[in-house]
Specification:
185 residues; alpha/beta; six-stranded mixed sheet; binds 1-O-pyrophosphono-5-O-phosphono-alpha-D-ribofuranose; binds guanine; glycosyltransferase activity
């Protein structure tokens, strides 16, 4: 995919900031408190969902105060685009999930296809329990499984295309220090 850097810069310049880094870090600290309370005795296996979960997982993990193991998985259905397609597994979990408590850490619960597929995979792989933590829950009525919620949710967001704190716009701005909505989207 070839993207004009001038366009990428313009998107950042024109974006609406929905959450500052301070607001996001406060939400992450609250979630860490909830997870410390709930999972401290569960010896969980924590999976960061690449790429978007990277910043959230990094900040969250540093606030968890109990023994855990960390790994990653990569399931993607946006692949640099701004609307999702079929789910594609780039990296499946390599560790045994049998009888483990698993904590999935991802940036956004949008339509929920990605999280639902990951939860199903972990259950079929023998996990004892699958817990899910997302930084952002996008509010709309297009959820893949309307009855499904993430167990730990940082903040809600409006139904717009967002980037920053791990989330990309056409592969860029995962490094943006807050969460921003693309102008007009
Ligand atoms: O709830 P959904 O509508 O399924 O979308 C949520 C998923 O989409 C994004 O991943 P993406 O496919 O963009 O991969 P990436 O993290 O590598 O950018 C995000 O990181 C979530 O994993
Ligand atoms: N960057 C980004 N990725 C997503 N994946 C699902 N929804 C979104 C979104 O709004 N922004």
């Amino acid at each position: 995919m070839s993207v004009e850097l001038a366009h990428i810069r313009q998107v950042m310049a024109e974006a609406d900031c929905l959450y500052t880094a301070d607001q996001l870090d406060a939400a992450i600290a609250r979630l860490a408190g909830e997870i410390n309370r709930d999972l401290a005795e569960r010896n969980p296996l924590v999976f960061c969902v690449m790429n978007g979960g990277l910043i959230f997982a990094g900040k969250l993990l540093a606030l968890l105060d109990f023994p855990l193991e960390l790994s990653y998985l990569h399931a993607t259905r946006y692949r640099g685009e701004t609307s999702g397609g079929e789910l594609f597994w780039k990296a499946k979990p390599e560790m045994s999930l049998i009888d483990r408590d698993v904590l999935i850490v991802d940036d956004i619960f949008d339509e929920g296809h990605t999280l639902a597929a990951i939860v199903d995979y972990c259950k079929h792989a023998g996990a004892r329990a699958v817990h899910t933590a997302v930084l952002i829950d996008k509010e709309h009525d297009r959820k893949a499984r309307p009855e499904m919620d993430a167990n730990y949710v940082g903040l809600p967001c409006v139904d717009r295309y967002i980037f920053g704190y791990g989330m990309d716009y056409k592969g860029y701005w995962r490094n943006a220090p807050g969460i921003y909505a693309v102008k007009g989207m």
